[in-house]
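We treat protein structure as text, and this decision shapes the records that our systems exchange. Below, we set out a record of this kind in full and without editing:

***
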Amino acid sequence: MPDHCHWLFCLNGKYSLEQTVRMFKGKCSRLVEVNLWQKGFHDRALRSDEDLLPIARYVIANPLRAGLVERVGEYPYWDAAWL
């Protein structure tokens, strides 16, 4: 997506969600030497395995809903391990 991103990942218990996001955003910004990110982020913790597939499908179909592609498979970053 040109103006935002969605991530689905499992935390391993070593770092909190906030720490994980902060480290990722910091590493990306250091690599390109530009602050790429707005402050903060929105999160949604999945509480059950049943929530995973519908949320993964929502994320994968986001470029389609945004009109960037006509089919999900046309978007180069559509793949997900959960599908």
Remarks:
- Helices lie at 17-32, 49-65.
- The first helix runs from residue 17 to 32.
- The chain has a mean pLDDT of 85.
- The CA atoms of residues 18 and 41 lie 9 Å apart.
